[in-house]
Specification:
The complex is a heterodimer of chains A (335) and B (354). Chain A is mostly helical and 335 residues long. Chain A has 12 helices and 2 strands, in the order αααααββααααααα. Chain A has one domain. In chain A, strands 1-2 form a two-stranded antiparallel sheet. In chain A, strand 1 and strand 2 form a beta hairpin. In chain A, helix 3 crosses helix 9 and helix 6 packs antiparallel against helix 9. The longest helix of chain A is centred in the first third of the chain and has 32 residues. Chain B has one domain: ABC transporter involved in vitamin B12 uptake, BtuC, CATH 1.10.3470. Chain B contains 14 helices and 4 strands. In chain B, helix 2 packs antiparallel against helix 7 and helix 3 runs antiparallel to helix 10. The chains are: A mainly alpha (335), B mainly alpha (354).
């Protein structure tokens, strides 16, 4: 990884790392504040990673870049929130998971099966259509207000390291829960992919569609499974994000934020999604808090908001030096 | 019975190279242009011109620009809104800072700015393609959204971040009434569409299509990929940028950066999918479809007397558009334009198909 060939990547990572610690050089920023920002970034990164996982799963197994992942997150979260009004949360969760399973089956039946062997770009556009449909459908069925998902976590932040720093560090409880859930989900997925027969079949399909088919793995069923798993991941992501921000249409945009994560981590890597998520999460928060004011001052901007594009520009740079991402497989179409 | 090319012999190279080789097509186009230029401004109401036809024409122009890139050169772009924004803001800044310049010159310079921008964000296409390129163009979209919202110079230090324009002036004539605006937009769109139609028939267009169909083979037969791709990005962004300037100056009048967001980019992409990728006439179909469908959906309940809330209509529109995208990709990947040509083919044999 650190060979001469990877010099640009290494340089980019070094620049990022230096940028990470640079704010400490400024006397005005205390270590405690820096740590707070860092932890906030890591937590946001975990959540990005959760959404990115959904992208990676589907891309690995079917080679489809699923633009509808954001719509799936929104749809699942809406279902969970609205069903949760009538029943306990666990029942709503199970029911929402079943709905996502039904959705996966429908997608395979109505769309994927008919677009077999089409180019990646065609499939990408098809998922754009699915995303639009799901947006409209979800809001028609579940309503389009802002809904709450209550996980029963107290909202007041936790004070940590009070001994080490004056005043301690503020950490949100729901962030910690989110991190735990994400870790559990990744472990469960790793177990599922590595140890179960279905998981092995999924990996076989991801490796080579034709070879998998020739040894008797039913492609269509695998696709249903993988879309259902992605739907489940979307449900978890929707639950966590929804409890944090409320379930509303803007949940969609989080999926767009997760797109650079996948580029950074690699389209085919589950750990890459999490690591990429962490890098993007921390990078966004750090750049917004520390780099933003400087840019505003130097270029006389009307406010910061560089977190809106920071991740994308980072991903763009990565595309130029290492298009397969940090952990992705190497065989992408170069021109 | 009437749509037949029997007896129309091509006796010179000139007639062989015509844009519309069949006489009936030429008559149809001339008639359509005559109706659009002469009849419509007199007959159509102010509302029809202002809210229906002008935006439709500008959308069609933007769709033509995007189609040159996606449909002809095969490079996907999710950042069309950004290129429109560059055109619009470039035109705005030119008009504000150099009021004496003719608006046609402003349009061309705005297009050139957008083209430069398109080349910049097209550079990744030399190394990556497919969905990776989609992400790169998304980066353009988000960066441009931010740039025009935050960098005050571009909005001439307006306090709200939105900009507003005076009616445009052409050769001392103020283009202000809907009729004048319509005629101006129509002229620009017709000229650009004709240019695009000719461009894709020629050397450049053919090299784009070769790149789209198979890049390696194209390179083998001597097409330079760098040149083909970057010209596609440049020409496409030029057209899109002019559409953006028209959208801002003629249709909106005053706008904020959110007017050119990702949603607009996706809508334009949908226009060319539904209308037909790799077809100029398809852009008009797609633009008409995407612009008139929501309006019809809005008016349908009142005419039928069914009470439907506006929110539900918006959601229904999303569902219909989404479902249609999938439908067209599965059933007719070449869109409405293909249906149009199938219809013409049928018409040639009608009424004696055997």
């Amino acid at each position: 990884m650190f060979s001469r060939k990877n010099l640009p990547v290494t340089a980019l990572l070094v620049v990022l790392a230096v940028g990470l610690f640079l704010p400490l050089a400024d006397r005005n920023n205390t270590l405690a504040f820096w740590l707070e920002v860092l932890i906030g970034g890591l937590m946001a990164g975990v959540l990005y990673g959760l959404v990115a996982l959904g992208f990676v799963l589907i891309y690995k197994a079917s080679g489809v870049f699923n633009f509808a992942q954001g719509a799936m997150v929104l749809f699942a979260a809406l279902a969970l929130a609205r069903l949760g009004e009538h029943m306990p949360l666990w029942a709503a969760f199970v029911l929402a998971a079943l709905i996502m399973l039904a959705f996966a089956w429908l997608v395979e039946r109505l769309v994927l099966r008919r677009l077999v062997n089409q180019e990646g770009v065609t499939l990408l556009m098809a998922t754009l259509g699915i995303a639009f449909f799901l947006d409209g459908f979800g809001q028609t069925v579940w309503g389009s207000d802002i809904y709450k998902i209550d996980l029963g976590i107290p909202k007041e932040p936790l004070l940590a390291f009070q001994g080490a720093f004056e005043g301690g560090i503020l950490v949100n409880r729901d962030d910690i829960v989110a991190a735990v859930i994400a870790a559990a989900l990744v472990l469960a997925l790793a177990f599922f992919f590595q140890k179960t027969a279905t998981g092995r079949a999924l990996r076989a399909v991801a490796d080579d569609h034709q070879a998998a088919q020739s040894i008797g793995i039913p492609l269509s069923r695998i696709w249903v499974i993988v879309w259902a798993v992605a739907g489940f991941v979307a449900l978890v992501a929707g639950m966590v994000w929804g409890s944090k921000l409320g379930v509303q249409f803007s949940l969609q945009e989080i999926a767009l934020r997760a797109l650079p994560v996948v580029i950074l981590g690699g389209f085919t890597s589950v750990p890459g999604a999490i690591v990429g998520g962490l890098i993007i999460g921390v990078g966004e928060k750090m750049s917004e808090v520390f780099l933003g004011p400087i840019l505003v001052k130097v270029f006389d901007l009307a406010g910061g908001g560089i977190e809106n594009w920071f991740a994308y520009v980072l991903a763009l740079l990565f595309l130029l030096v290492r298009p397969e991402g940090l952990f992705g497989e190497k065989h992408i179409d170069r021109v | 019975m009437f749509y037949r090319e029997n007896g129309q012999f091509k006796t010179s190279y000139r007639t062989d190279l015509q844009v519309f080789p069949i006489r009936q097509d030429r008559i149809f186009i001339w008639a359509l242009l005559a109706v659009a230029f002469v009849l419509v401004p007199f007959v159509a109401s102010e509302y029809t011109l202002r809210a229906l036809l002008i935006p439709f024409l500008i959308y069609a122009l933007a769709a033509i620009g995007l189609n040159l890139l996606v449909g002809y050169c095969g490079q996907i772009s999710l950042g069309t809104g950004a290129f429109m924004a560059v055109g619009a803001y470039a035109a705005y800044n030119l008009v504000v800072r150099f009021p004496a310049v003719n608006f046609l010159v402003v349009l061309v310079i705005a297009g050139l700015c957008a083209a430069a921008f398109g080349i910049l964000f097209g550079i990744p296409s030399l190394r990556i393609k497919g969905l990776y390129l989609a992400v790169a163009t998304l980066a353009a979209q988000f960066f441009v959204d931010w740039m025009f919202a935050r960098v005050k110079w571009f909005t001439n230090y307006s306090s709200s971040g939105s900009v507003s324009t005076a009616p445009i002036e052409l050769f001392g004539m103020v283009v202000d009434t809907p009729q004048e605006k319509y005629l101006f937009v129509l002229s620009v769109v017709v000229l650009m569409a004709l240019a695009a139609k000719n461009l894709v028939r020629g050397h450049i267009g053919r090299s784009w299509m070769a790149m789209r169909d198979m890049d390696v083979a194209a390179e083998v037969i001597g097409i330079r990929p760098v040149y083909a791709k970057l010209t596609a990005f440049a020409v496409s962004s030029f057209v899109v940028g002019i559409a953006g300037a028209l959208w801002g100056f003629v249709h909106l009048g005053s706008w904020e950066p959110a007017a050119f967001n990702l949603n607009l980019s996706l809508r334009l992409l949908f226009m060319i999918i539904i209308g037909g990728m790799g077809s100029i006439v398809g852009c008009f179909f797609g633009a008409a479809f995407m612009w008139f469908l929501p309006i019809m959906l809005n008016q349908l309940p009142t005419t039928l007397g069914i009470p439907i809330s506006t929110a539900l209509i918006a959601h229904l529109e999303l569902m219909i558009v989404g479902a249609l995208i999938v439908f067209f990709l599965i059933v007719e990947p070449h869109g409405l334009a293909r249906l149009w040509s199938i219809g013409k083919e049928k018409l040639r044999l009608w009424p004696f198909p055997h």
